[in-house]
Write a structure and sequence with these properties.
This protein is an alpha+beta fold and about 180 residues long. It is built from 6 helices and 5 strands; from the N terminus they run αααββαβαβαβ.
Length: about 180
């Protein structure tokens, strides 16, 4: 079992070691902000009932493009923006590592809603981990109307493109960096 863990974490480091949470250049930050706005519009277009989460959540994190790939050992990476009461407060990055029967690649979008201030504060600690695959709701018309918070969070995923066969185990790890909003 130690050998599998070593392979798992080595793959995660190789795949995501050089990725930064905050885009380096202003132009890149502007592009990310535009992608976040587009992702929010796509989620609302696909399922208008998700608006209630935007209206009632204390905060949310939007990852407009998460890239995932696997051949037995897999990984995913994406970055996005975090909002408190509708105002951008920072940036987040997602790293995911998996092991198991998993082949292919895909892109997806993810939004995490935080019900209360303490839920967002837990996320803001900078090193937050959970298994989104077990708790995420795939966005389809009316899906948000049936979804609810679990441990103060509601997670929605929208597949973009790709083909993936995935029966793996793993988890998502998030980093949060406060935005310099001067």
């Amino acid at each position: 079992m130690k050998g599998k863990k070593l392979i798992f974490w080595t793959a995660a480091l190789v795949l995501f070691g050089g990725c930064s949470t905050v885009p380096e250049k202003k132009e890149s930050r502007d592009v990310l902000s535009a992608e976040v706005k587009e992702a929010i519009a796509l989620f609302k277009s696909e399922d208008p009932t998700i608006q209630s989460f935007f209206d009632n959540a204390y905060g949310y994190a939007v990852l407009p493009r998460v890239t995932k790939g696997a051949f037995w050992i897999g990984g995913a990476y994406g970055r996005g923006e975090v909002f408190e009461r509708g105002r951008k407060i920072g940036y987040t990055s997602l790293s995911q590592a998996t092991i198991g029967f998993s082949f292919g690649g895909e892109f997806f979008r993810e939004i995490i809603f935080f019900r209360e201030k303490q839920d967002l504060d837990r996320f803001r600690t900078g090193e937050f981990t959970f298994s989104a695959q077990a708790t995420a709701t795939a966005v389809t018309v009316g899906a948000a109307a049936k979804a609810d918070y679990k441990d103060g969070m509601a997670v929605f995923i929208m597949a973009d493109r790709g083909l993936m066969v995935d029966a793996s185990i793993g988890g998502q790890k998030f980093k949060f960096i406060e935005a310099d909003l001067r």
